[in-house]
Specification:
- With 126 residues, the protein is an all-alpha fold.
- Helix 1 packs antiparallel against helix 2, helix 1 runs antiparallel to helix 4 and helix 2 packs parallel to helix 4.
- 52% of the residues lie in helices and 0% in strands.
- The protein is globular, with a radius of gyration of 14 Å.
- The longest helix is centred in the first third of the chain and has 22 residues.
- It has a single domain, classed as Nucleotidyltransferases  domain 2 (Four Helix Bundle (Hemerythrin (Met), subunit A), Up-down Bundle).
């Protein structure tokens, strides 16, 4: 079976990103990288939910497109709008020339959002 068609694979990958986002801060580590993992956790979890719903996820980092697919089959929680805060972390944190410093407070917020998405979706995709 193609792993991209198995929602549990997506959820496990999301969990891996979430666990990495929670690693203790050490020298040479950046909140930007942790926020990228938060974004990836949410994206992969959402794609896992899309697969679980019998749909094919778009190859996109934009949450709007993912929520559009999910909303065809589920009513989205009100807090889903918060997930859009993670959109920029898909790109701005990846390359030194696009580097935008992320504060500890921004990281904590990103982690809260990623945890909420992961918890919601892992409760659906079992």
């Amino acid at each position: 079976m193609d792993d991209s068609l198995d929602p549990k694979v997506w959820i496990n990958r999301a969990k891996g990103n979430l666990l990495r986002a929670k690693l203790p801060m050490e020298d040479g580590m950046y909140y930007e990288d942790f926020c990228f993992d938060c974004q990836q956790c949410a994206e992969k979890a959402l794609k896992g939910l899309i697969v679980h719903l019998g749909l094919t996820p778009h190859k996109t980092h934009y949450f709007g497109k993912l929520f559009e697919e999910i909303s065809k089959r589920l009513i989205l929680p009100d807090w889903c709008e918060d997930v859009f805060e993670l959109n920029d972390y898909a790109v701005i944190t990846r390359y030194p020339d696009d580097f935008v410093e992320v504060t500890k407070e921004e990281y904590i917020r990103a982690l809260e959002i990623a945890e909420r998405v992961y918890t919601w979706i892992s409760g659906i995709v079992k």
